[in-house]
Amino acid sequence: DQQVKQNSPSLSVQEGRISILNCDYTNSMFDYFLWYKKYPAEGPTFLISISSIKDKNEDGRFTVFLNKSAKHLSLHIVPSQPGDSAVYFCAASGTTSGTYKYIFGTGTRLKVLA
Amino acid sequence: NAGVTQTPKFQVLKTGQSMTLQCAQDMNHEYMSWYRQDPGMGLRLIHYSVGAGITDQGEVPNGYNVSRSTTEDFPLRLLSAAPSQTSVYFCASSYRFRDKPPGNTIYFGEGSWLTVV
Question: Can you say whether the dihedral through the CA atoms of A103, A105, A107, A108 is positive or negative?
């Protein structure tokens, strides 16, 4: 049973436009969420995170939104750049419950067209 | 500044053979974990550890063993390799949440490509 889901396997966006990547989770014990970016033949690298006490976190061109009632988070990239082309994974963990497992989604491949 | 180091980077095994993927971190992280990445399946957690001497199963633990005798090392053992274990394996580490405020992240190694024939 997939606890973290990314329902869009791929997304193509024109350079300069907004990219929106979505993630849904089912476990209500999750209270900390992260986004990772992965290039081919490399390990995933951290992008941005959000705690459940917030509904928005911003870092430069990247903003993550969290809707706890819908168990949904999204990553916005504005403006999108060709270097953003990669696979993006969302991940979730239950920090206060002591569940240190980080569960990842299936990933969304973003292609930014020049 | 090595971070998370995995060896080997590439390995071909025959069905039934055993091997160990090595993982070491030099950041004094207590949390370590192993993931496998397969097409369409994302990153799936195999096993994890919250400290030396403590390990637990993740989402797909069958066919794999782990141990954590030191804070730095977290090897992953395949006892009898099967073609279904052909995958890319990633080791990751992190501080425990109670040791760090929110904003904590996990750090990944560069991956180990394993093919079982």
Answer: negative
